[in-house]
Each structure stands twice: as C-alpha cells, then as structure tokens.
Amino acid sequence: MIAKRDKQRIGQRLLDGFRAAGAVEVAPDILLPAETLLDLYGEDIRARAYVTIDPIRGEVMLRPDFTVPVVQMHMEHGAEPARYCYLGEVFRKQDMGDLRPENARDNEYLQCGFELFARDPDADAEVFALFHRQLQGYDLSAETGDMALLMDAVRGLPLSTARKDALLHHVWRPRRFQRMLDRFSRPARGLGLSDSQATWSGLRSPEEMTVRIARLMADRDEPPLAAEWGDRLNQLFNLRASAPEAVTQLRGFAEDFPAIAPAVEQIASRFTAIAGLGIDPASIIFDASHGRTTMEYYDGFTFTFTAARADWPPVASGGRYDALMAVLGKGRAIPAVGGIIRPGLIAELEAVQ
C-alpha cells in the first residue's frame, strides 16, 4: 500500500518539472457543472463519472479530469501562448467487469498534468519531450498515434457525406465502427412499406421520422464501398511499428490513399522535431489506432507511456484537442496539446526498484 504522502511527494516533483518548463499552476474546482462536461467527454468517462443534483447549481459532477476545466478557464481569461500545470485528485467509478482485489484501482487518484496553448507547429514534440524527460528512469514504453490520420482516411473514402459522418462519429468505438464499415461494404437492404410504417411508432415525432425515413431511403440507393477501400482502411488502422518504419509504411499507404498524405507528412515532421529534442524516434512505437479508445476530444497527436504491467492503465497519456478548443471557444479556436501523469503509479514503480 503506497502512502498518500509518497504520491503527493512525487506529484510535487512532477509539478516542479512542469513549472520549470514555463507552466503556471492552476487549480480547477473539484465540483463542476455537469451539463457541458458530459457532452464533451467520451462514453467511457461519462459512464464512470460521479454525477449528482445540487439544489442550487443543478446537475454537478466530481472532477473526472483536468483538461476540460482548464480549457474553460483559459478560454475565459487566458492569452496565447500559454502553459498551465496542475496537481490534484480526479474521481472515476472503476470497471465492474473484474472485481478481483489484485485488479482493483482507486476511484480517487492524483493527476499531475501540463497543457500548452500555442500555434507553434512543433508544440506536439515539445510536450512529448517534456513528458519523456519527466519519466526517464522508469523503463516505460512510449507509443504515439494520430487521430487526424484516421479521420482523414475516413473522409477520403468514396462514400456519401452522411456515411462518412456516421463512420467518423464511431471512430472512437472500434467495434461499432467495424460493423458500420462492413454494412457499408454490402448492398443496402431495401426499405419496404411495412418497414416504413413500423418506424412511425415510438418516441420520435412525425417530423423527426420523416427526416429519418428520407435518410434511410437515400442510403438505400448508395452503392456499396468497394472491397479494396475497406482493405486499405483496415491495413492502415492496424499499422503498428517503430516510428521510422511506420513513416515509411505510411508514405506507401498515401500513394493509394492520397487523402492521408498531409497527415503523413505532419507525422514525419513531428518525429523529426522529436529527434531534434534528443529523443531517438526508433525508441517510439507508432500505432495508427492509438487513442481510439480514450477520450473523444483528442483529434490529432496522441501519446502514452506505459509500464510492463498488463493490468495497469498508462502511467502518462495525452494528445492534441483542437476541436475541443473550437467548441468551448465559441468560434475562437486556439491549438492545444497536453497530458497527464499518475503519481500513484510512479510511486508503485519506485517501491519495487
């Protein structure tokens, strides 16, 4: 059992490292308005958030992470460029799928993090290198990905806008995404009279059902996605290799998949910038599907540092969330990238060294 003071000690050390990188320490409230946050978090966090009703404030939640409240604070008061750091508890219900004591994790734990708001094209590399320095000596594996690569690939498919939007909506849910891709690769089933009549029952209004039926009718007439496109997409999504090898393979993919070419060159430039900061790209794994099961506000570069413990979450994780900035900024978009470290897991690693 790791003492709380040991976790705090490590958290303060990490916080000092972020301050030394120019970050200003902030402390968002523990109890937050739930409405906006629940819309922004992915399904995993929404299902694990502690939500209750306050008689004055309405629906509120215990802080499940820092990024969204830090973004809200910055969009109200901050200028750019800006760097923030923080240390404090977050609260999440744990997965009930495995109740064995050895697999139990705390539902309240420390997060120490760093967020960078800047238009610098090398901001991703700066943040990754900062976390790499903070975590040296713990024998962690570094992995990166890029959600923009996957979304550009979907946008490049020869499908209708409606079908591409549907796939993009589920890109963070791999099983649903694959089922939908498989369905779009088969001829659409006809919508018979009995089908259309049946859809009028339920909670939707007649106007809503009219729109839905029109969409189904249009979808019925769309040709299936050619098998070669589904194969290309699956091969891309399954790419996993060291960074230099991944860039080589990605450039090969881009020859047949031109929509991803700009994202591929951005990935290559990022690894060049990381190398310029003293980190060998060959020591980093690039996984094209990295980030697909984490928070849905990551829409670009993603990264994790993991220990060789099968039942552990990442010791550190983060990524780029430009789209979140646009939503919370109400039209004022500032590029942003950041991440968190779990001091409690660092403390556990130190205890066995």
Description:
There is one protein chain. The longest helix is centred in the N-terminal third of the chain and has 17 residues, at 4-20. Mean pLDDT is 86; it is low at 98-104 and 191-201. With 353 residues, the chain is α+β, with helices and mostly antiparallel strands. It starts with a helix and ends with a helix. Helix 5 packs across helix 13. It has a domain at 160-226. The chain has 15 helices and twelve strands. It comes from Paracoccus amoyensis.
Q: Helical content, roughly?
A: 40-55%
Helical stretch tally: 15
Order of strands, main sheet, comes to 1-5-6-12-11-10-7-9-8
What is the overall shape? globular
Q: What is the rounded distance between the termini?
A: 15 Å
Order of helices and strands, N to C? Answer: HEEHHEEHEEHEHHHHHHEHHEEEHEH
| Class inferred from helices and paired strands | alpha+beta
Instruction: List segments where confidence is low: pLDDT < 50 over at least 5 consecutive residues.
Output: 98-104, 191-201
Largest sheet: 9 strands, mixed
Strand runs, count: 12
Mean pLDDT: 86
Radius of gyration (CA) equals 22 Å
Assess the beta-strand content as a share of residues.
15-25%
- In terms of quaternary structure, the protein is single chain
